Amino acid sequence: MKYELVAGFETHVELATNTKIFCSCTTQFGGEPNTHCCPICIGLPGTLPKLNKRVVEYAIRAGLATHCQIAEIAKMDRKNYCYPDLPKAYQISQYDKPLCEHGYIELSNGRRIRILRIHIEEDAGKLVHSRGSTMVDYNRGGVPLIEIVSEPDIRSPEEAREYVEKLQLIMRYIGVSDCRMQEGSMRCDVNISVRPMGSETLGTRTEIKNMNSITFITKAMEYEYNRQIDLIESGEKVVQETLRYDDVTNTTSGMRGKEDANDYRYFRDPDLVTISVPRSKVAEIADTLPELPAEKLERYVDELGLPEKDAQLLVKYRKVAEYFEKAIEGTKTPKTAANFIIGQIFRTVENEAEKEEFAIKVTAEHLNELIKLIDSGKIRMNIAKTTLDKMLETGQAPSELLSESDMAGLSPEALKELCQQAIDANAKAVADYRSGKEKALKALVGFVMKNSRGQADAAAAESVIKSLL
Amino acid sequence: MSESMIYRFHRMLTEKQISCQELTQAYIEAAQRDNAALNAYVTLTPETALAGAAAVDKKIAAGEDIGLLEGIPMTLKDNISTENIRTTCCSKILEDYVPIYDATVWKILKAQNAVLLGKTNMDEFAMGSSCETSYFGGAKNPHNIGHVAGGSSGGVASAVGGHIAVYGLGSDTGGSIRQPAAFCGIVGLKPTYGAVSRYGLIAYASSFDQIGPITANVEDTAIVYDAIAEYDAMDSTSQGRKGAPVCDTLKKDIKGMKIGIADEYLDGVREDVRAAVEKAADVYRSLGAEIVRFKLPALQYALPVYYILACAEASSNLGRYDGIRYGYKADNYTDVNDMIKKTRSNGFGDEVKKRILLGTYVLSSGYYDAYYKKAQNLRGTIVKAFRNAFESCDVILAPTVPMTAFENGRATSDPIETYLTDICTVPVNICGLPAVSVPCGFGKDGLPIGMQLIGNSFDEATILNAAWQYENAAADSYRPADFGVKL
Questions:
Q1: How far apart are CA B44 and CA B119, in angstroms?
Q2: Domain boundaries in chain A?
Q3: Which of A171, B269, B382, B402 is the most buried (most CB within 10 A)?
């Protein structure tokens, strides 16, 4: 029998606000243990939370960017559980009145992954195990999070990958999070079940907790999919449980401890007042949303005429897209800029993280200048390419690197002279060409190009050589 | 006693009849002496008090003006956080806990050079009506030390009633300011929820807790209330005082004021207490007020609503005491869960454990709807009933407690009966309303009786005005206890 995979995601995204959700401590990642803390975020007796308005705004941005409805009235609730990394023994979260509901993310295959809700909450601290003892670092405690809960609409590990990547990209575009999975600023819990192909009812699900790599997510899903099918095929039942994924053995195993059979005893946090979100505020936030990745992609293909593959590469990184748009301002050929970025410039950026940062020596203004020189015919493409290489090395402007002669190009007399030299110096190639080998011409053109230091135009050189022969 | 002690000492200080150090020294000595009988203080801070007093004397010597509360010796209930001074909630679990920050109310008073004599006794985590659930033993009634001072702010009431502090701040979750004030024959105000910042008050039940003054007379209560009722950005539920300072209208005429009496408040009240309240109504009539009788049937829900909701919140608020970051930590544990279990088992007293269990139960899945949710709905019903009541009267007059102070040991031996004595005080906490308890005579047992004046939201001015007029008219309602400073 064929089985269908059914998965839903609960994605925690750390918000990039400067301060924590209920106090004015910094949210910076790292730092000496317990130095980004105050009486409020370590929950000293008598302290009270004060909601950071920015957190609400960021969550609304996230909601709007994923087509959610934004609540007019929301509230904060306490989720009670006892664990050393949770200093108040409750997490302030949202239970039955989340800020955002009923949105979606559209995948490239046209399917929409519905978003059930997005709510705000505080992060917990971190247990640090060292030399046989366990310590707690509360620096992360109180860092604002949004939890994005999807409906069980994902049908394959590939869809899961795209969903997570799209979420990541959107959050980065709207500036609410850097979504660095390896630093934990984005973490996923995957709910997964299987059912016979064509069935409408949901199977018993398991939940794989705290996934912090897209590759592991897809691997864990594949493993879990097969494990559940094996159970069903052998007449056993899938047990609803919380699982941990082991990336060394590529297996999942049951988790015991804080997540098991918890009754969180949710109730409204009496220390915080109702959050009201006037529609005017939502409209104001909507006005400040940038062009989203999907819209950008469409525009690059339809309006700028870029091949979809190239457009995707540019849109994939917010800073790259911004750079590209600056570089093509007032130029005639967006394709040229795209090629420069995807080709020469990307070669100098090592990995994903660097592409994300995109801190390269060539400013967008300098690249813009270079492209305008090409557009106006002042320099030839091959000169432009070598100039860009120099720019990438030195960070200098094209005007500082290009000489008068570079910009002047090659005179017809000089070209003719060079072509004659080529014919004189390559008797064999000339003979080959004359005996009908068209290809032999290439060697002659190559000679011209080399000796003109790239200033010659290859097509022009070819026609001059032909006429001379 | 209608003469303000704060005014009197202020005058003595500014007229240089006494130095602030002398005044403070007199209180320190009396406190050290009488605390043996009253057990009002759990921590005395004579050095800080005298250092503060010296600073005030310097100002006076330099001819500078001083504020009304400047240099006046006072105390704080031991659930109000004080930087560098241990704040125990009278629990073993916080026995050695020293806060690293000041509660907002203390910040305000400290800035006015208040002289802190020490921290006072209370029921453990403010859970109790006799002060006897305190880890340090209960505070005693200055009118008869065979009886309790009341609770939970028993220590403040005992200290102020026993004249070993001029005034104090307590907290009131279900009557914890008013009941001990009534038992000790003094004045206690539970302000409107949100009038005084809760920042730094160690929480019992967050949607009920409110800090307020306990003083020897109404005017002192008004002075202290005006000083502490400030908006505080650190407390999201804070709003501060609304309208003019209550001292401005304290002594105005109350002719035509409508004073309501709800029959339900007098049901089951001990006869001498009932008579004292009826007599107070007569005093009001003689002052030109109009007495309006009405029914408030929603009161029957007040006790269960209070105990369900307050315990629910407490079960969450007290979860943080796990021995990991501060406070008591058990020895000899096998792992972290065992450590937390043993810490709580040894660190919390029985009453606290009982309320945590009760609160956990009513929030548990399967019981939430039957208890917590139902109680929340009924809370709304009670709020509406009071709102309606205030359409036909300006203040509501009621007994503070259906009886006088319990004998030592009785409250803890019969907890259900003790819970029932909260019937008159809990409704205002449910509704967030202000209420002041004022002495209104003495019972057959010779112990003080208190009555309370309940006001509409943020209408402290009216209840304090009515309280002052009564106090001024009924001189026999108050008698000083035979303890403490006699100046």
A1: 6
A2: 3-284, 291-408, 412-468
A3: A171
B235 near A CB under 8 A? yes
- Whole-angstrom distance, CA of residue B22 vs CA of residue B485: 12
Q: Does the beta-carbon distance from B81 to A80 stay under 8 Å?
A: no
* Domains defined for chain B, CATH in brackets: 5-296+382-477 (3.90.1300.10)
Query: Which tokens belong to A106?
Result: 């559209």
Is A42 near chain B, with CB under 8 Å?
yes
Task: Let me know the angle formed at the C-alpha of A367 by A361 and A373, rounded to the nearest 5 degrees.
Answer: 140
Which positions ≥6 away from B37 have C-beta within 8 Å?
A: B140, B145, B483
Rounded CA separation B85/B101 (Å):
10
Tens-of-pLDDT digits for all 487 residues of chain B?
A: 568 999 999 999 999 999 999 999 999 999 999 999 999 999 999 999 999 999 999 999 999 999 999 999 999 999 999 999 999 999 999 999 999 999 999 999 999 999 999 999 999 999 999 999 999 999 999 999 999 999 999 999 999 999 999 999 999 999 999 999 999 999 999 999 999 999 999 999 999 999 999 999 999 999 999 999 999 999 999 999 999 999 999 999 999 999 999 999 998 899 999 999 999 999 999 999 999 999 999 999 999 999 999 999 999 999 999 999 999 999 999 999 999 999 999 999 999 999 999 999 999 999 999 999 999 999 999 999 999 999 999 999 999 999 999 999 998 888 888 888 899 999 999 999 999 999 999 999 999 999 999 999 999 999 999 999 999 999 888 889 999 998 7
- Laid out side by side, the sheet with A206-211 consists of A69-70, A100-106, A112-122, A144-150, A3-14, A186-196, A206-211, A242-246, A251-254
Cα distance between residue A236 and residue A239, in whole Å? 9
Of A50, A90, A265, the CB nearest to B360: A265
User: Counting Cβ atoms within 10 Å, is residue B110 exposed (0-12), middle (13-18) or buried (19+)?
Assistant: middle
Instruction: Report the gap between the CA of B111 and the closest CA in chain A (Å).
Output: 20
Q: How many helices (H) and strands (E) does chain B have?
A: 17, 13
Assess B202–A contact: CB distance below 8 Å, yes or no. yes
Nearest to B435 by CA among B452, B421, B457, B450: B452
Burial label, A337 (beta-carbon count in 10 A; 0-12, 13-18, 19+): buried
| Assigned fold of A412-468 | Arc Repressor Mutant, subunit A (1.10.10)
List the single residue in B with minimal CA-CA distance to A45.
B202
Query: Catalytic residue numbers of B?
Result: 77, 152, 176
Preferred mutation among B86, B321, B342, B363 to probe A, highest tally of A CBs within 10 A: B363
Instruction: Look at A46 and B234 and tell me if their CB atoms are within 8 Å.
Output: no
Sign of CA pseudo-dihedral B52, B58, B60, B65: negative
What global pTM score does this model have? 0.90
Comparing CA positions, the residue from B219, B165, B149 lying closest to residue B189 is B219
Name residue A137's beta-bridge partners: A126
Spatial contact of A449 and A461, defined as CB atoms under 8 Å apart:
yes
